[in-house]
Structure to design on (432 residues):
């Protein structure tokens, strides 16, 4: 069994998307000839807002060893910026914290000492000294400063490494209309990315579009490893039939670049023509984590408070239970941005309720939905309204909504199959 060191800021019990990506690799890589050793930070408490992310954790290292992998959980001690954030929250000391972040970006090019979680580097350095059987390293960004850790470790220990991009970095399609400060940071980070990736043997990322963007920039071979769904997560979930309210669910983060207006307009017309209060419910799971976006949705749905609910972050198992008892799922594409495969789509595919994508991304999301027969592509509020009425009528007349998915096509997006693709990439990049 070949050993691989995985350095990741996120890992369960953290409930961020990146946590489950790395967890699935740890869980399944041994099936394909690799034994993962994960180094991550501790998450001692639920994270309900950005302030919680920077809170200091326990001072002890926890080592957990399982049959197929092992994990080292390292304490987190916040720096001055983190402590200010923890003490004053989002609205105070903002300018000073931005100044501190700016100098941290500069300092990262010269030393790991400015990074509050630099113990991930020092501990990994010690592991590599002790265990010469480790064949390579993977690190997952964000935070992208982890790439600098592997850049240094690779040079020091003469060991190959692979960068995992959960988002694109300097090639980001979101880098538009930036302030002077943000343009300076972007220029510094572009320099950092070029420098740190110079000795990487390749990279992985979440979609074919991202592979092309990143490969053209860093001139390294890339592999598309999607997030996927873990079949184990869906055993024993409740049946939809137990929920007598026609329920529509959007799960997770919403961004400014995602137009929700088509749907909210259609939903307003739908509840006014379809049924009384209590028979229909729209849920935005976890959206309160992003207050600005939660307020945006509340504004668009003003007057319909009896028909919708916006929740705080929900533990994954609970979220899956809620989604399993729903009837319709929602996704919103990003205007002018390609290659974004939000992890929620894979949960949606696995659970099997019809999915409404609005508007189409004319790319990977439309391709997934079309090839798996898992939902509807709606570019107008009128089409959304037609679909909602049709699904609601089907539910009223039959008590359920027919499952029309192509299960064979959906199996391609399981975490197991995606981890097998990763293992083959590692065989090529780290061994061949």
């Amino acid at each position: 069994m070949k050993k691989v060191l995985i350095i990741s800021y996120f890992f369960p019990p953290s409930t961020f998307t990146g946590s489950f990506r790395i967890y699935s690799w740890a869980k399944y890589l041994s099936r394909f000839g690799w034994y993962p050793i994960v180094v991550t930070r501790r998450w001692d408490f639920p994270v309900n807002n950005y302030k919680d992310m920077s809170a200091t954790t326990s001072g002890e290292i926890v080592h957990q060893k399982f049959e197929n992998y092992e994990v080292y959980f390292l304490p987190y001690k916040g720096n001055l910026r983190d402590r200010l954030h923890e003490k004053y929250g989002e609205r105070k000391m903002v300018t000073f914290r931005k100044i501190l972040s700016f100098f941290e970006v500069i300092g990262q090019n010269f030393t790991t000492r400015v990074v509050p979680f630099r113990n991930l580097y020092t501990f990994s350095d010690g592991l590599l000294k002790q265990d010469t059987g480790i064949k390579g390293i993977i690190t997952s960004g964000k935070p992208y400063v982890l790439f600098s850790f592997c850049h240094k470790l690779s040079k020091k220990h003469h060991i190959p490494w692979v960068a995992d991009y959960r988002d694109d970095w300097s090639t980001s399609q979101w880098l538009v209309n930036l302030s002077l400060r943000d343009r300076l940071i972007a220029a510094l980070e572009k320099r950092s990315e070029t420098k740190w990736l110079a000795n990487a043997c390749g990279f992985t990322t979440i979609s074919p579009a991202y592979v092309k963007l990143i490969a053209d920039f860093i001139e390294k071979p890339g592999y598309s490893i999607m997030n996927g769904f873990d079949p184990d997560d869906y055993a024993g979930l409740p049946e939809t039939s137990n929920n007598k309210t026609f329920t529509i669910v959007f799960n997770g983060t919403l961004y400014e670049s995602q137009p929700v207006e088509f749907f909210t307009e259609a939903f307003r017309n739908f509840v006014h023509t379809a049924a009384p209060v209590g028979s229909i419910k729209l849920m935005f799971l976890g959206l309160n984590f992003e207050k600005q976006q939660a307020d945006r949705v509340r504004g668009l749905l003003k007057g319909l408070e009896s028909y919708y609910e916006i929740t705080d972050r929900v533990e994954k198992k609970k979220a899956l239970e809620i989604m399993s008892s729903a009837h319709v799922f929602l996704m919103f594409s990003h205007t002018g941005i390609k290659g974004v495969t939000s992890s929620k789509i894979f949960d949606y595919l696995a659970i099997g309720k019809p999915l409404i994508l609005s508007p189409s991304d004319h790319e990977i999301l439309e391709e997934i939905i079309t090839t798996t027969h898992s939902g509807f592509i709606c570019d107008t509020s009128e089409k959304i309204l037609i679909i909602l009425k049709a699904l609601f009528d089907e539910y009223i007349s039959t008590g359920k909504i027919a499952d029309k998915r192509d299960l064979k096509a959906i199996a391609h997006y399981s975490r197991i199959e995606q981890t097998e693709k990763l293992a083959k990439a590692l065989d090529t990049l780290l061994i061949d």
Remarks:
- The chain has a mean pLDDT of 89.
